[in-house]
Specification:
The protein has about 425 residues and is of the alpha+beta class. Helices cover about 35% and strands about 20% of the residues. A hairpin with a 2-residue loop joins β18 (about 360-370) and β19. The radius of gyration is 34 Å and the shape is elongated. The model is unreliable at about 15-20 and about 350-415 (pLDDT under 50).
Length: about 425
Amino acid sequence: MDWANKYFTDQAVGGAKGGTSSGYIVLAQANLNDYENYTKSVWYNLLANSYTNNQDKLKAYSKSLEIQPLNLDSYDNLIKLYIAMGDEVTNAEWCALANKIIDNYTFFPPASYDLIKVVNPHISDLQDRLAMDQKLQDSLQRASNATDRDTLQRTAVVELAGALLGKTKVDLATFSFDGANAGKIMIDKAYADYDFLLSYSLDGGNTYSEQTMNHAIQLSEEEILSITGNNDIKLKMSGTEAVYTIDIIDNPWPKAVYGNDLENRIVDANLDMEWRLKNEDGTWPERWTSYEEQSPDLTGNKVVQVRMRSMGNKKFSNTNEFTFTQDETNLAKRYIPASKKQEAKSILQQMPLVVTITTIGEVAVAVDKNILLFLFQNQSTYLQLNSFQDQRMEMMEDLQVQLYITDQTLGNPIS
């Protein structure tokens, strides 16, 4: 039995050459464990090969599979005969064969995966093709959770099914907020040769659009804005009640991001965000600018809105608003940005005493002899210093420290 090297076997599951070999070894062993029926099955295959009449061949191959439904040679021969018979074989017969393969090879995932790849192109009805794709996916999912009662080779079955799961999933259609097909419902290329009427819903299936045969459906700006993670995008083909869902995710806002008025920037902003500045007349521009394109100028008195932008199947996040004010020019009180950590450490090392800090957050420090002023989220707290010298560096490592240094203790303002 050299089943791992048949013309239809996938030789690279999980990226390993010959990756399915172990799966076919398991299948061969299962046939040999029922040797009596396997040999009878082989005899009917030989009998079928001796016939010249296709109907006689079909009966013999069917009898072979009736005796031993795991004989891979029987399926191989039957598929070749179906292909040779051409239009004599109906869509229903191809579907019946595909169902038989998946049902009998649930716990032999490489065989079901490889054979369905051969059978599926001959299923002419799109609805049947989609149903078979889903059935194979469900079968592999079941095999990936196999128990010792399901198979004697549970470890190998689970591993192979898991590797194949990622290769079998074919969605009817996809949608992306950005990229070359931004704002379009794109029918998967696996179904490019099928003509069918399709309608879509953006409100969770309550209402559907007019039917279209387009394989690239452009949504309007209004429709795109109405898309939400709760409702997703629903698709329905004419003549069926089956609903297919394109998953939409509401892009979350990162908790660590905040506006730093003293540094005139949004801390921890990233290239996946976008922004817009309030106009002088109090209105907001329609256009958002990506951080990938340009960062906002937040000097002076500015109000800015920032959000995670839409990309892939993720829709933009909730909008966050930050207010920035004109910088101070009082030289007796100079600000050292948190990014200048070494300079801040040097200042702290000059202080005779430090305080133990347990709250992590944005901190501003004003030195006045032995008193520090801590600002947590715009609330002032005065703390008396203690004598734990070893807490100096720990404080700098744990916090983003912003320091106001006055000349009352260290002399001239720090720049």
